[in-house]
């Protein structure tokens, strides 16, 4: 299990300078290390071995590069090892058909974070204020809006500067206790995610898409204002921060919604089945909304997966092929363009909302894939005759698309 807690830091002006100094020293180290790495032939070893070879030169490097001695040891090491992650991410993009070049030298704006591994960071309090105590850096005030459970081991602390200028600390943790997943799951749900509706599940709950038009409009206005300022001027710089803030607002709102929705499914059910979105064909959609939708769905999937892990809920991602075409009752395939919102089977007469039909197929595949002892009747027999439409606003406000009190109270991120 591996997920992150994220807290805002509240550094003093002096600490800000220190943070920026560390960030920039790491950036210079990264650029240098990348240069050294690129001179090592591929035949010299695996990617990991070659990056480690660069990392092992740190001790020698510190002989002549004084600033490196200001960094905590694992921070410097993690900075070099980041090359490995970047290359992996790059080749994943390539595999997915994106046209990407090689790794680039990082400019100051592009290098935003540095990481402490295992040690060098500690929670503390000073004059009644929570602080994050960072070795070779400072005791930085931290806004701890929630507690990290005592039984988790924090593996890493990443200190990051957002484009808004705000600093955050993110913690990757190892859960010591992973709850057992039920051997005889009772509450099972299949979820179909879409564009017109965000999600439609086998219990008949249809969650509408989040309305972000106000936020988008504010962002566009801010961008327009930026374009009219003289590039690089004080006003331009001020407005650039406003633009970054508008971006952050939009992102926060979307994440909040996805957190609450995924939390609801992970806590309310024993099995959650969803489509493997990496494989979901998005060809029906125009480019722009396709990118946006696939990014948000990917986030939703990842949140759902780690939350299910945390709650002891089975999570299963199924092959998305033909989930919309197939009849959930008899399996016969019928073509349906996007605008046909109803499933009406010419073969067996089964009728359902288009997305409800897909959700049932997703759940059936999920149950089959898991092979767990689910003794109840097939999902199609338990499908509700009437679907309930729920606004995304309700999910954001109550943390749940249904009115069940248990989930409304259990809202957390
Ligand atoms: Zn049928």
List the helices and strands and how they pair.
Elements: E1 3-9, H1 13-38, H2 47-55, H3 58-64, H4 73-95, E2 113-117, E3 121-126, E4 129-134, E5 139-143, E6 152-161, E7 167-175, E8 188-193, E9 197-201, E10 205-208, H5 213-227, H6 234-268, E11 271-275, H7 287-311, E12 314-318, E13 342-344, E14 351-353, H8 354-370, H9 379-382, E15 388-390, H10 392-398, H11 405-409
Parallel strand pairs: 8-11, 10-15, 11-12
Antiparallel strand pairs: 1-5, 1-7, 2-6, 3-4, 4-5, 6-7, 8-9, 9-10, 13-14
Q: Please give the order of strands in the largest beta sheet.
A: 2-6-7-1-5-4-3
Shape: globular
Oligomer: single chain
Give the averaged pLDDT, no decimals.
85
Number of helices: 11
Bound molecules: zinc ion
Tell me the β content.
Answer: 15-25%
What letter string, H or E per element, gives the SSE order? EHHHHEEEEEEEEEHHEHEEEHHEHH
Structural class: alpha+beta
Taking pLDDT < 50 over at least 5 consecutive residues as the criterion, the unreliable ranges are 405-413
- The termini sit apart by 16 Å
| Gyration radius, in Å | 25 Å
Helix content: 40-55%
Describe the biggest sheet?
7 strands, antiparallel
DSSP E strands, number: 15
Brief summary:
With 413 residues, this protein is of the alpha+beta class. Helix content is 42%, strand content 20%.
